[in-house]
């Protein structure tokens, strides 16, 4: 590498330099990275470099840009967008993110680089924040149990649908959906209902329930038209007829109006976007799902609960983990894995910062603006359709809707055209009296005489809307119950308190800003600051997903670039960025396969072959599209059992829809038979789904679209640097060959897309985080991307060599090589010594490290994925810790320490448990806290001791515990 090359972005992103790589290669026993690639990957799929020494496909990428150049290009793309005043509503509202939250959460790597809290002892900070989120949702919806976030409002509605279907267990497959739910919600419901045989009956529920049987009812409060309906009567009647009711509820409105739980509804769902999370052209933001206590065990997604640690102190961890799709596989009822943790944390902290009275004041102000708007319109002789509304005013303008919409646009305000005769105007936290005036002027109206400027009723008297003379609609403030009374929502109301609260929570966790996170299958690589910076620029962040296309040419160019680059990298022909997690990409991909078979007159093809080693989401996604999952065995070496595969392909030949196979495998190996496997499936008319979540081992080396895949999803939050955010956001693009392109996700509200197959609420899913992946590809260029893959593979093989002497490496490929991760097998150790994977994982925290992936895909093992971003020094320190732990295991085996009292079983050790005078364990306190000496690394003090998960599941508690619990 020349001097100038040291300043390329790739040299900053990739941890090991040339010398370090030489050291690694020597340990592995190969002469070069190229030789390593030839040994690790099957010759049949490894792409030879072009004449110009570039990886095929990647030659279509622009040459690598520096950070400064990429940011300049992104700035130009941002500048091409227009940030209009958005009064479109329809589920997306402008909001004012408190700067203390933007800076200390969204822009803070301690929060955004964390992983899903599977190791709860070093994740107490984000678990507490998520518990606040759950408590907030419960309080505002009036229901007892809420999960820790959904992907968006549309998919939350779909999960509500399947939850009710399951809970009722009746004979009916009919779901009644009110006409006044958001169109994107109805679209996602339609997509998800069809393969499950659920029939959706659309009805105007204000006129009563339709005839016939049905298992559930879905309505919205307020409705898409803005109207507030008291649903209690509908709930009572639905219950009498044996059906459940789910209400889509706007949480800001719920500070004023009677929440779903108090009307008897069984389920509430919706979005928390307007709690301080920018619209972001559609995402990401946290959806939510809340249920009555009796349905708690049916709730999909992750649920944070309170339990106790080994010293009896309250501690948080994910509750009811056995419900997760990883365990239930094809019996799963949901495939959600990555959710929206970072955005849920923001929404929860927004509620903490404003408190109950602050939120209600914002709600009253929003409502006041809407009333002022309605008053001005009525005074001006314009017809306002509903009298009961919160923030959205529906206006009747016979034949003139498009004209009014365009005139508002010319005045700098985007409003929503409902149909030829109606527009709706939504107020939000950012609305001002000037905005209201600007809209009124479009109708030739002016602020109503009595309303006065600002029109916001004084935010003083109780929770109700202050009596206003400006609009004679009824007072909507029907809520009488209290909410957000827990100290989590009263203590942090000043910036100083909030700043310190966020810092204290982050300090409890291990994120990438403290150590490597060697989680196999998760690809915890660098999320560079230059990649992250643009996502908060208002030109990207403050865009409504249904804004006129003319407002967002820069974003659309960015999306088109990314689609092109991803097709080049994967060898496919078309990509959709709509799915907002890997699971959703899987779902969209399988839908495309299904549609393709149906179009060819073979709708009966419904068998999906899935190797036993697959990620749990694979089987869950297949179940959700109504496929029959047939499991293919693996051989002793971890590879797919070719004989079993061929037998099952032949057995189901006429009914075979797809094979879902992860490549490289979830065992961290490049299977050499992949081309044969794909051919066998194609020979009988099946399609091949290559799960591309492990693409970090393939970019620039092999292309799934060329070695046999018909469709893949990628995880931009793994390979392409979107941070994991503690368990979301994510983007799970689905990439397909030409013949499947027309079945990619569409959206009813995006002119350029077909109407069908919406899998997310927004046309481009979590669009506002796409600049991260754009910047990564732009700055790495073809050579950087390929070098990253090779380095990731080298690093994993180096670890396999160094640790292989101490822990058996479970699976390797033909030449003894692993791919980008390796599985350390502890089963024999456990059998002989009693020391478990849990003990090792928890003990690593005492050494200052985050544990590898535990017991996935093989129980009793640890899967290590270093990624290319970790330096050799960091990788070596991890190896030293693991080797030292092996020494501790040997001491247990030798009887130096008893099986039930040793530093492994006692791990992790808090400062509190060591700072005692009556220490009576057979190991010393120094051994507990500083096993490799004080100079080894900065000490991480876990805030709690080992957590008893089962206790918490027996005593389920999923909202903030009383403060006395911590006394
Ligand atoms: C991470 C992962 C998934 C699921 O992706 P999410 O974004 O969490 O839904 C699927 N398959 C494999 C192999 C994975 O590693």
UniProtKB/TrEMBL annotation:
GO terms for cellular component: cytosol; glycine cleavage complex. Residues 788-909 form the Glycine dehydrogenase C-terminal domain. It comes from the Bacteria. Its EC number is 1.4.4.2. Keywords: Oxidoreductase, Pyridoxal phosphate. One of its GO terms (biological process) is glycine decarboxylation via glycine cleavage system. Residues 12-443, 491-746 form the Glycine cleavage system P-protein N-terminal domain. One of its GO terms (molecular function) is glycine binding. InterPro entries: GcvP (IPR003437), GDC-P_C (IPR049316), GDC-P_N (IPR049315), GDC_P (IPR020581), PyrdxlP-dep_Trfase (IPR015424), PyrdxlP-dep_Trfase_major (IPR015421), PyrdxlP-dep_Trfase_small (IPR015422). The modification N6-(pyridoxal phosphate)lysine is found at residue 718. Its cofactor is pyridoxal 5'-phosphate. It catalyses: N(6)-[(R)-lipoyl]-L-lysyl-[glycine-cleavage complex H protein] + glycine + H(+) = N(6)-[(R)-S(8)-aminomethyldihydrolipoyl]-L-lysyl-[glycine-cleavage complex H protein] + CO2. The glycine cleavage system is composed of four proteins: P, T, L and H. The glycine cleavage system catalyzes the degradation of glycine. The P protein binds the alpha-amino group of glycine through its pyridoxal phosphate cofactor; CO(2) is released and the remaining methylamine moiety is then transferred to the lipoamide cofactor of the H protein. Belongs to the GcvP family. This is Glycine dehydrogenase (decarboxylating). It comes from Mycolicibacterium rhodesiae (strain NBB3). The lineage of its organism: Bacteria, Bacillati, Actinomycetota, Actinomycetes, Mycobacteriales. The gene is gcvP.
């Amino acid at each position: 590498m020349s001097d100038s090359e040291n300043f390329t972005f790739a040299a900053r992103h990739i941890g090991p330099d040339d010398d370090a790589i030489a050291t690694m290669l020597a340990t592995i026993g190969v002469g070069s990275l190229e030789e390593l690639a030839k040994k690790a990957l099957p010759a049949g799929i490894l792409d030879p470099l072009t004449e110009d020494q570039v990886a095929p496909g990647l030659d279509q990428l622009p040459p690598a840009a520096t950070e400064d150049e990429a940011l300049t290009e992104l700035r130009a793309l941002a500048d091409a967008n227009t940030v209009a005043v958005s009064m479109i509503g329809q589920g997306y509202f402008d909001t004012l993110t408190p700067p203390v939250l933007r800076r200390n959460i969204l822009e803070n790597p301690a929060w955004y680089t964390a992983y899903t809290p599977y190791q709860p002892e070093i994740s107490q900070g984000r678990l507490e924040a998520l518990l606040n989120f759950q408590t907030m949702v419960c309080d505002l919806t009036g229901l007892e149990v809420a999960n820790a976030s959904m992907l968006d409002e549309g998919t939350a509605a779909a999960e509500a649908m399947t939850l009710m279907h399951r809970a009722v267990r009746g004979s009916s497959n009919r779901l009644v959906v009110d006409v006044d739910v958001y169109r994107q919600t109805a679209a996602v419901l339609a997509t998800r209902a069809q393969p499950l045989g659920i029939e959706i009956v659309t009805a105007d529920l204000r006129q009563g329930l339709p005839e016939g049987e049905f298992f559930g009812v879905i309505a919205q409060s307020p409705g898409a038209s803005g109207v507030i309906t008291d649903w209690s009567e509908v709930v009572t009647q639905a219950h009498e007829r044996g059906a459940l009711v789910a209400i889509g509820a706007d949480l800001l409105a719920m500070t004023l109006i009677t929440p779903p739980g108090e009307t008897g509804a069984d389920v509430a769902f919706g979005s928390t976007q307007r709690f301080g999370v920018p619209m972001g052209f559609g995402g990401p933001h946290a959806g939510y799902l809340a249920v009555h206590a009796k349905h708690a065990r049916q709730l999909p997604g992750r649920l944070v609960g309170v339990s106790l640690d080994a010293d009896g102190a309250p501690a948080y961890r994910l509750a009811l983990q056995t419900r997760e799709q990883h365990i239930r596989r094809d019996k799963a009822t949901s495939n959600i894995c990555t959710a929206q943790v970072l955005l849920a944390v923001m929404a929860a902290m927004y509620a903490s910062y404003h408190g109950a009275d602050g939120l209600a004041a914002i709600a009253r102000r929003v409502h006041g603006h809407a009333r002022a708007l309605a008053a001005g319109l009525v005074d001006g002789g314009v017809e306002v359709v509903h009298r009961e509304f919160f923030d959205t005013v529906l206006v009747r303008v016979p034949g003139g809707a498009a004209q009014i919409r365009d005139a508002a646009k010319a005045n700098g305000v985007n409003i929503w055209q409902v149909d030829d005769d109606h527009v709706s105007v939504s107020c939000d936290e950012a609305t001002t009296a000037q905005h209201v005036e600007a809209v009124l002027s479009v109708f030739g109206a002016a602020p109503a005489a009595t309303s006065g400027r600002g029109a916001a009723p004084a935010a003083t008297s109780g929770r109700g809307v202050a009596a206003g003379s400006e609009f004679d609609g009824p007072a909507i403030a029907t809520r009488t119950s209290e909410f957000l009374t827990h100290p989590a929502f009263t203590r942090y109301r000043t910036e100083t308190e909030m700043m310190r609260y966020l810092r204290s929570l982050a300090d409890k966790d291990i994120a990438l800003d403290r150590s490597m996170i060697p989680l196999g299958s998760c690809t915890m690589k660098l999320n560079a600051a230059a990649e992250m910076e643009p996502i908060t620029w208002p030109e990207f962040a403050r865009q409504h997903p249904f804004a006129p296309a003319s407002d967002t040419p820069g974003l659309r160019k960015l999306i088109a670039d990314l689609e092109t680059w991803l097709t080049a990298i994967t060898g496919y022909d078309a990509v959709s960025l709509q799915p907002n997690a890997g699971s959703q990409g899987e779902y969209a991909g399988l839908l495309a396969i299904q549609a393709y078979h149906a179009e060819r007159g073979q709708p009966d093809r419904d068998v999906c072959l899935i190797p036993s080693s697959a990620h749990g989401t694979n089987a869950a996604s297949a179940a959700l599209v109504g496929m029959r999952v047939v499991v293919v065995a693996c051989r002793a070496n971890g590879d797919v059992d070719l004989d079993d595969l061929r037998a099952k392909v032949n057995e189901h030949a006429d009914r075979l829809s797809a094979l879902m196979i992860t490549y490289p495998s979830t065992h961290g190996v490049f299977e050499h038979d992949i081309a044969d496997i794909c051919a066998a499936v194609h020979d009988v008319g099946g399609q091949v789904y290559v799960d591309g979540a492990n693409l970090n081992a393939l970019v620039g080396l092999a292309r799934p679209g060329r070695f046999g895949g018909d469709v893949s999803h990628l995880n931009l939050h793994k390979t392409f640097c979107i941070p994991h955010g503690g368990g979301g956001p994510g983007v799970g693009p689905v990439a397909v060959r030409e013949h499947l392109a027309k079945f990619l996700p569409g959206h009813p509200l995006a002119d350029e897309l077909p109407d069908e197959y919406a899998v997310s609420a927004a046309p481009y899913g979590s669009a506002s985080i796409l600049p991260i992946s754009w910047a990564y590809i732009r700055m790495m260029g073809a050579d950087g991307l390929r070098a990253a893959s090779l380095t990731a593979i080298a690093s994993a093989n180096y670890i396999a060599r160094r640790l292989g002497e101490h822990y058996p490496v479970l699976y390797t490929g033909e030449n003894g090589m692993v791919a980008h991760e390796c599985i350390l097998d502890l089963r024999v150790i456990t059998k002989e010594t009693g020391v478990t994977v849990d003990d090792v994982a928890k003990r690593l925290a005492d050494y200052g490290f985050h544990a590898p992936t535990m017991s996935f895909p093989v129980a009793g093992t640890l899967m290590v994925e270093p990624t290319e971003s970790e330096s050799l020094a960091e990788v070596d320190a991890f190896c030293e810790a693991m080797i030292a732990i092996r020494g501790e295991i040997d001491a247990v085996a030798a009887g130096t320490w008893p099986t039930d009292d040793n530093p492994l079983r006692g791990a992790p050790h808090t400062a509190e448990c060591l700072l005692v005078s009556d220490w009576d364990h057979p190991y010393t306190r120094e051994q507990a806290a500083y096993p490799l000496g004080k100079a080894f690394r900065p000490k991480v003090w876990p805030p709690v001791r080992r957590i008893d998960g089962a206790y918490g599941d027996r005593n389920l508690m999923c909202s903030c515990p009383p403060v006395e619990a911590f006394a």
